[in-house]
Amino acid sequence: STANGRFFIKIVILLAELELERTSERIKFVFEDKVKNGGAITGSQPLGYTTAPNEDGERIVVKDKETEAEITEIFDYFEKTQSLRQTALYTNEKYGRIRDGVQIKHFIKNPLYYGHYKGNDNYCTPYMTKERWEKLNKIIKDKNIKVYNSRVYIFSGLLKCKGCGKKIVGHTSIRNGKDLMYYKCNWKGKN
Hints:
Layout: H1 3-36, E1 49-53, E2 59-63, H2 68-81, H3 84-95, H4 101-109, H5 130-142, E3 169-175, E4 178-184
Antiparallel strand pairs: 1-2, 3-4
Helix pairs in contact: 2-3, 3-4
């Protein structure tokens, strides 16, 4: 409560702020250096990528062999159909996933898929060229594609799978040119 006490507290707070800012600068510098040299910042990567150690033991971003075909098919199918919704429905059915057009759009707009990350154009092994990435994004822009998910599945989360007991959710697929709405267990694949 004294003037000296208040002065001391203010000095301690200023020293703590200084150390916090210096630590932040060091971390930022380390991350920038890692990105420049192709090092992974985090273990969480988008579909089609994972992290693995390089010859020096540093973790880098590499293609994930388990999901490589799936992400490649997403790009190929979208380029062929020019439809986020159809791409989502097709890949959901083929790979047993639950994705909508918004998630497909995020994949297509992610520059990591042509190897670019925070100013480094050679950050990781690309899935496509920059020209193809620009072409796919131009399709979205030119068609002014907006994504809506107006389907209502009133029993999603209420019904349970007989096989595993987990909740089942609503799905949509295109069959014979018509939308087919149904419920499915994502764990067992039961309808």
